[in-house]
From TrEMBL:
PANTHER family: LACI-RELATED TRANSCRIPTIONAL REPRESSOR, RIBOSE OPERON REPRESSOR. GO terms for molecular function: DNA-binding transcription factor activity; transcription cis-regulatory region binding. Pfam families: LacI, Peripla_BP_3. The keyword Membrane does not apply. This is Transcriptional regulator, LacI family. Keywords: DNA-binding, Repressor, Transcription, Transcription regulation. It comes from Asaia bogorensis. Residues 6-60 form the HTH lacI-type domain. SMART domains: HTH_LACI. PROSITE patterns: HTH_LACI_2 (PS50932).
Length: 334
């Protein structure tokens, strides 16, 4: 037997009020006395009534949902940031519509899906580079915030780590540690953050006359292990390594240990990026740039709040959060 859905009419009868009073009670902007609202809420709770949001969406054009697009969550940094973002969005009175994307095809489908749900804003943690994708996102005509990305455009704001500056810092640190032949372990080519770290590192290496070797990874532990293993098999004997993220840095460090007699930090110093929990494990004690995800999330939520407070102005801002280098055993705790 199908259970009948409780409606606002049932709540009105149970509370002894009009149906319009029930509607006003569940509207944050409608005029209704506290006593009347409490009376309606009590009746709704007793009947287990859940208000239908569709009429409000049709009337106001606002869904009360914030779309969040993520890629892979293998990096603990993004899992942590997503948790903080979701909590902040809910505290602001919105719900989160989470969409995971694995390639350009699913990204296109995700944008169509988010548009059909009429999300009020979009936060994306993807590395987006294609101009047509930027145009499609801007065409949604809602506030868009790119998390840990430098992407900008009409109505698009971004918050990111100080990637280029940190890359330069890594090169300067290695120079001070007498490194002469460092390796740069790059992340995915489409990842703008990795490219910025590389640009800063290469610039710093050039300034200090360091002979840097570039090897290509992806963004996970195994790619770091495989890329470094291949470089070692070709005869490379680095005395320094800067990895685009900690997961690859840990993988590369394990490859060095497995395939050579090089000691860390006596023979090779290693620096990562993200300062994920694994970086502090005794097996690695990896020096790493802390992206300060709490500060990144706070900046993103601030842009979101100001976007709704000035709906007639499409914000296009760029915020850079200074990364902090956490020194551990992999650089001798200099």
């Amino acid at each position: 037997m199908t259970r009948r859905v409780i409606t606002s009419i049932d709540v009105a009868r149970h509370a002894g009020v009009s149906q319009s009073a029930v509607s006003r009670a569940f509207s944050s902007t409608a005029s209704i006395s506290p006593a009347m609202r409490e009376r309606v809420f009590k009746a709704a709770e007793e009947l287990n009534y859940k208000p239908n949001r569709i009429p409000a969406i049709m009337l106001t054009g606002r869904s009360g949902m914030i779309g969040v697009i993520v890629g892979g969550l293998g990096n603990p940094l993004y899992g942590y940031a997503l948790e903080k973002l979701s909590a902040g969005i809910r505290e602001a009175g919105f719900q989160v519509l989470l969409v995971q994307v694995i390639d350009d095809v699913t990204l296109d489908a995700a944008l169509d899906q988010l548009a059909s749900y009429r999300v009020d804003a979009l936060i994306t943690a993807l590395a987006i580079g294609a101009e047509e994708t930027v145009q499609a996102i801007s065409a949604l005509n809602i506030p868009v915030i790119c998390f840990n990305s430098a992407l900008t455009g009409p109505g698009i704001s971004s918050v990111q780590s100080s990637n280029m500056k940190s890359g330069h810092h890594a090169a300067t640190l290695m120079h001070g540690l007498k490194v002469r032949h460092p390796v740069w372990l790059a992340g995915p080519l489409q990842n703008a953050a990795s490219r910025a770290r590389e640009a800063g590192f290469m610039q710093g290496c050039a300034e200090h006359a360091l002979e840097v070797t570039r090897i290509q990874g992806a963004d996970d532990y195994q790619s770091g292990f495989d890329a470094m293993s291949a470089a070692l098999a070709q005869g490379h004997r680095p005395d320094g390594l800067f990895a685009s993220n900690d997961l690859m840095g840990c993988g590369a460090l394990d490859a060095i240990r497995q395939h050579t007699d090089l000691r860390c930090p006596e023979d090779v110093v290693v620096i990562g990026y993200d300062n994920i929990p694994q970086a502090a494990w005794q097996a690695y004690q990896l020096s790493s740039f802390d992206q300060r995800p709490d500060a990144l999330v706070t900046a993103a939520l601030d842009i979101l709040a100001r976007s709704f407070s000035t709906p007639d102005e499409r914000l296009s801002e760029r915020h850079e959060i200074e990364a902090e280098l956490v020194l551990r055993r992999s650089t001798g705790r200099v």
